[in-house]
């Protein structure tokens, strides 16, 4: 419309009256601006909505932007420390996230947490810290970064978004979890390390009847970029139910990658067909490791019953088989679509989930062989350090990585109308996402956040993540009382469960059985 009006007024000014230049000039300027919007690569909103997209940035300048991520609360009602999305955006653009004045939190409110600085800080370590993933049964261990791309599937995300995430992972040397939607060409396009997630639908290694196809799995797992395999038991945002991909997003390519019919809504089962007991789970993990040729294999879950996780530990002890890692997904984790009641009321928050899994593995003498990952609103360096203190060895981020590739939280993930091309299979909308630009942003964000975590640890007098202790994280529990995590929670000694469970764990340990959940 602007172009047509510009041409019309230009002709009128040339043919009839120079006064028409008063309209032609501004319209020609708008035409030039719209052309720039369509061709630039930094703002997906402007590529999809030339001219009109500037209204969004104007509104951000006129008022403080209230982001849903910031407005949301932690599980105990405490607000987040900062507008996390702004921090991610700044770091993704290569800018340091710094603010004038002091903390925006009331440091005397109940629930306020802080890390303990040292009177003798140290210099941050040279290089980037990593943790080796791979137990005694693994012949191809993997050095995992402290922050990685969490599980997000092709189908839920667009092809350009998946490519940008993988290229960013390749640039930064960190891992990219595929999500349960299968292993696509887009995951393999730029050489980034992959954690291939196998969900209850077995997408990408699925028989016609919906079962697990071992031959297809082995062929794909042999790819050099597949560095680890993760079996998804449950997801923090919706534990106990499977994922849903609306039929409008199941294009021919998505259907081919997932081994499902085109155009039909895909609903993952709530449970795995391949196992029904803790012992069968452990043996299935061992089988997958053999099919991969010895690559690290683990599982992801949102923790529920402590006795059920202890049942898995008992199965590991009896079979002499351990996974190489366990990823703990907190109940505060996000998803593109989930029933509100599930998101709000089911599953264990990440803090308790991490501490439960860590203690269970320590108490059964298995912790040295199994690495623990943490996912669920991990976005900043402080988040990484807190999760390492609570028992994790590495962390994964989904929402923050989506911010880095341009997500503006339009909350249209399930409608296929994402305005910035991140969560859509509409090629016209997806073209707005420039892969090269967004890959650099993913890389910059991850680098800056891990660097921030290293600087925080150095301020605490810590040179290695393994030196972090629960007494270095404090929480105010009353106006005049502050306790460390070492005192807030029980921390088991190695082998304390197998040598005679302490009173606080005795009932759950007695209820745990390797042949039933």
Protein model, in words:
Helix content is 38%, strand content 12%. The protein has 517 residues and is α/β, with parallel strands linked by helices. Mean pLDDT is 90; it is low at 64-82. The strands form 4 sheets. The chain has an 8-stranded parallel beta sheet. Strands 1-14-15 form a 3-stranded antiparallel beta sheet. The chain has a two-stranded antiparallel sheet with strand order 2-3. It is globular, with a radius of gyration of 25 Å. Strand 10, helix 11 and strand 11 form a beta-alpha-beta unit. Helix 6 packs across helix 17 (435-459) and helix 11 packs across helix 19. The chain has helices spanning 2-15, 21-39, 44-48, 54-62, 68-71, 84-92, 159-172, 214-221, 252-258, 278-292, 306-319, 340-345, 350-363, 381-389, 399-404, 427-430, 435-459, 485-488, 503-511, and strands at residues 113-115, 130-133, 142-145, 147-149, 175-177, 193-198, 226-232, 244-245, 266-267, 297-301, 325-329, 371-375, 394-397, 473-478, 481-484. It has 2 domains: 2-96, no CATH class; 130-510, Aldolase class I (TIM Barrel, Alpha-Beta Barrel).
Characteristics:
517 residues, alpha/beta, TIM Barrel, 2 domains, 8-stranded parallel β-sheet, globular
Task: Give the SSE layout.
Layout: H1 2-15, H2 21-39, H3 44-48, H4 54-62, H5 68-71, H6 84-92, E1 113-115, E2 130-133, E3 142-145, E4 147-149, H7 159-172, E5 175-177, E6 193-198, H8 214-221, E7 226-232, E8 244-245, H9 252-258, E9 266-267, H10 278-292, E10 297-301, H11 306-319, E11 325-329, H12 340-345, H13 350-363, E12 371-375, H14 381-389, E13 394-397, H15 399-404, H16 427-430, H17 435-459, E14 473-478, E15 481-484, H18 485-488, H19 503-511
């Amino acid at each position: 419309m602007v172009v047509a009006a510009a041409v019309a007024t230009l002709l009128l000014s040339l043919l009839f009256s120079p006064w028409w230049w008063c309209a032609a000039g501004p319209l020609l300027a708008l035409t030039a601006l719209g052309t720039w919007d369509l061709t630039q690569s930094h703002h997906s909103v402007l590529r999809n909505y030339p001219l009109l997209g500037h209204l969004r940035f104007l509104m951000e300048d006129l008022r403080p932007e209230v982001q849903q991520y910031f407005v949301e609360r932690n599980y105990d009602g405490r607000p987040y420390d900062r507008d996390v999305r702004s921090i991610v955006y700044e770091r993704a653009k290569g800018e340091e996230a710094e603010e004038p004045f002091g903390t925006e939190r009331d440091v005397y409110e109940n629930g306020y947490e802080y890390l303990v600085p040292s009177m003798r800080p140290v210099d941050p370590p040279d290089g980037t810290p990593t943790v080796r993933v791979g137990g005694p049964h693994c012949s191809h261990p993997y050095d995992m970064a402290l922050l990685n791309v969490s599980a997000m599937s092709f189908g839920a995300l667009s092809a350009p978004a998946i490519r940008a995430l993988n290229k960013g992972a390749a640039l930064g040397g960190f891992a990219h979890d595929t999500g349960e939607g299968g292993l696509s060409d887009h995951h393999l396009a730029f050489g980034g390390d992959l954690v291939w997630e196998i969900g209850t639908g077995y997408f990408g290694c699925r028989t016609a009847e919906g079962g697990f196809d071992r031959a297809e799995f082995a062929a794909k797992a042999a790819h050099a970029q597949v560095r680890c395999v993760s079996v998804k038991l449950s997801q923090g945002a919706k534990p106990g139910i499977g994922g849903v991909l609306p039929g409008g997003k199941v294009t021919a390519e998505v259907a081919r990658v997932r081994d499902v019919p085109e155009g039909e809504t895909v609903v993952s089962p709530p449970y795995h067909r391949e196992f029904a007991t803790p012992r069968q789970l452990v043996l299935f993990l061992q089988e997958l490791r053999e099919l991969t040729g010895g690559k690290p294999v683990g599982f992801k879950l949102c923790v529920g019953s402590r006795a059920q996780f202890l049942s898995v530990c008992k199965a590991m002890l009896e079979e002499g088989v351990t996974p190489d890692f366990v990823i703990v997904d907190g109940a505060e984790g996000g998803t593109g679509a989930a029933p509100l009641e599930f998101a709000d009321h089911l599953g264990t928050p990440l803090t308790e989930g991490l501490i439960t899994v860590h203690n269970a593995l320590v108490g059964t003498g298995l912790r040295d062989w199994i690495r623990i990952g943490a996912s669920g609103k991990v976005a900043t360096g402080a988040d990484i350090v807190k999760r390492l203190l609570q028992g994790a060895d590495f962390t994964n981020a989904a929402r923050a990585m989506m911010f880095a590739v341009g997500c503006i939280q339009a909350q249209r993930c399930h409608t296929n109308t994402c305005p910035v091309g991140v969560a859509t299979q509409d090629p016209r909308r997806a073209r707005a996402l420039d892969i090269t630009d967004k890959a650099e942003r993913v890389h910059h964000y991850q680098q800056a956040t891990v660097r921030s975590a290293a600087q925080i640890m150095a301020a605490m007098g810590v040179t290695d993540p393994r030196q972090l202790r629960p007494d270095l994280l404090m929480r105010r529990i009353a106006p005049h009382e502050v306790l460390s995590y070492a005192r807030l929670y029980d921390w088991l000694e190695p082998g304390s469960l197998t040598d005679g469970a302490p009173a606080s764990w005795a009932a759950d340990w007695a209820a745990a059985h390797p042949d039933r959940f």
